[in-house]
């Protein structure tokens, strides 16, 4: 039996719950394994403790973030709920304290919450089945945002090799986007590259608010063809922070993600992220090479840094004078494309990809003249409801970063480098610490575990959770 989800809205257990719930995401789990059956009878578990190998739940059905009232699909589109393919759904909820309630060290109070999502579905099918594609930076410590800067750019790439393998010949049509950063995000743009030409941005939010990040319908669906590259570009203002900010899932950390609703749905590609390579990360800190196997991690070269620990380098690094070099390296250095399917596995043929910034020869540039509004140019008139851009040529040189082979898996296996980086992230002030991000995901009362940075998952059997029908 197939039903079609056409609308959903948040349901809060109480007014108190509404002030703590930060976001709720409903995932679809492919297949029906005994492990999922067992988990569906449990009361939920912390995200970070879950055995990811059995969670074939990499398709997003519905996503709600603080400030949103829910989402209604266009009349011709809906999300299919197919009981013969997906019997289990995973609910993920994150909680966050507000700034005036946060203290250090944290003193969380016990509370019970029963919030969730109310889904509306119908047995009347529509013309198009929708899917969700996540594009951006993978939430990871390698996403580094220097302190004391008003304009820091980060980019998450969905490379053309992945869209080429996954998208149908006629492409897909993006009709709504949810653009997400945390506290210091200021702008987000979803860019589209075809061959060496940059097309008009699919969406561009020039004034983001981390307490208001919901799905926004585009004025017209935008077609993305196989081989197109999508880039989530985020701009941060870290001028009020004295320590580096790392990528992650908590509100104290940062993220750069765009959830794109599109049709027709395909299941080959659901998560299309990128992650800076380890050579790019250490080069951005002026480091050429690390001492293999060292703990604490020590620098091998250049000679002037030889013997210094990575922690010391992070403490002493002159971000003010070296910021431009840092931005150059992080934006032009190599990265690891991460292209994952609905079954929470890498797409075949993408495991060993290495990515670099695209060599764009033609791009859109913002027109700053008021004459654009009254322009009779057909292209200008067509695009002015989206963003005011025109095409002009641009020559890029081939920019790469020296660093040798990317031995990320070997060097990162014991998390020594991550530990060195995170140990230097200050959590001593309210401004920099507002990061209690925990969660439950269930439709029954459960006590919130008083622990920092813990999210909880709950597996739901399709025929057991509450859905409003029409």
UniProtKB/TrEMBL annotation:
One of its GO terms (biological process) is norepinephrine biosynthetic process. Keywords: Disulfide bond, Glycoprotein, Membrane, Transmembrane, Transmembrane helix. Coiled coil: none annotated. Belongs to the copper type II ascorbate-dependent monooxygenase family. The keyword Cytoplasm does not apply. One of its GO terms (cellular component) is extracellular space. InterPro entries: Cu2_ascorb_mOase-like_C, Cu2_ascorb_mOase_N, Cu2_ascorb_mOase_N_sf, Cu2_monoox_C, DBH-like, PHM/PNGase_F_dom_sf. This is Copper type II ascorbate-dependent monooxygenase C-terminal domain-containing protein. It holds the Pfam family Cu2_monooxygen. The chain crosses the membrane at residues 446-465. GO terms for molecular function: copper ion binding; dopamine beta-monooxygenase activity. Residues 6-96 form the Copper type II ascorbate-dependent monooxygenase N-terminal domain. Residues 129-274 form the Copper type II ascorbate-dependent monooxygenase C-terminal domain.
């Amino acid at each position: 039996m197939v039903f079609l989800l056409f609308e959903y809205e948040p349901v809060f257990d109480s007014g108190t719950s509404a002030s703590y719930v930060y976001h709720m995401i409903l995932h679809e789990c492919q297949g029906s394994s005994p492990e999922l059956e067992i988990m569906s009878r449990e009361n939920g578990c912390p995200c970070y403790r879950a055995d990811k190998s059995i969670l074939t739940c990499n398709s997003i059905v519905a996503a709600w973030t603080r400030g949103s009232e829910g989402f209604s699909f266009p009349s011709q589109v809906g999300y299919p709920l197919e009981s013969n393919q997906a019997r289990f759904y995973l609910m993920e909820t994150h909680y966050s304290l507000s700034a005036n309630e946060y203290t250090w060290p944290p003193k969380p109070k016990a509370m019970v919450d029963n919030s969730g999502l109310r889904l509306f579905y119908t047995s009347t099918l529509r013309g198009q089945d929708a899917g969700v594609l996540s594009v951006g930076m993978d939430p990871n410590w390698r996403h580094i945002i220097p302190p004391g800067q008003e304009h820091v750019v980060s980019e998450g790439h969905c490379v053309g090799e992945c869209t080429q393998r996954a998208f149908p010949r006629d492409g897909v049509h993006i009709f709504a986007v949810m653009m997400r950063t945390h506290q210091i995000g200021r702008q987000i743009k979803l860019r589209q590259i075809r061959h060496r030409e940059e097309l008009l941005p699919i969406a561009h939010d020039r004034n983001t608010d981390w307490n208001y990040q919901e799905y926004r319908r585009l004025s017209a669906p935008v077609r993305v063809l196989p081989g197109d590259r999508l880039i989530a570009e985020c701009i941060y203002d870290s001028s009020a922070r004295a320590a580096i900010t790392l990528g992650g899932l908590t509100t104290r950390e940062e993220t750069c993600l765009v959830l794109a609703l599109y049709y027709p749905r395909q299941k080959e590609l659901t998560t299309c992220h990128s992650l800076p390579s380890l050579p790019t990360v250490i080069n951005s800190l002026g480091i050429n090479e690390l001492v293999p196997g060292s703990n604490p991690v020590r620098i091998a070269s250049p000679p002037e840094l030889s013997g210094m620990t990575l922690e010391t380098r992070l403490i002493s690094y002159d971000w003010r004078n070296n910021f431009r070099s840092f931005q150059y390296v992080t934006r032009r250095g190599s990265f690891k494309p991460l292209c994952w399917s609905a079954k929470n596995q890498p797409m075949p043929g993408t495991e060993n990809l290495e990515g670099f910034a695209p060599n764009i020869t033609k791009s859109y540039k913002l027109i700053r003249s008021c004459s654009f509004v009254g322009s009779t140019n057909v292209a200008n008139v067509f695009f002015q409801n989206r963003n005011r851009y025109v095409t002009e040529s641009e020559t890029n040189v081939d920019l790469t970063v020296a660093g040798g082979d990317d031995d990320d898996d070997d060097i990162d296996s014991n998390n020594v480098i991550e530990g060195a980086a995170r140990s230097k992230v200050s959590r001593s002030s309210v401004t920099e610490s507002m990061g209690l991000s925990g969660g439950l995901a269930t439709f029954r009362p459960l006590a919130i575990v008083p622990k920092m940075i813990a999210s909880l998952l709950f597996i739901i059997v399709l025929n057991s959770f509450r859905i409003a029908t029409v």
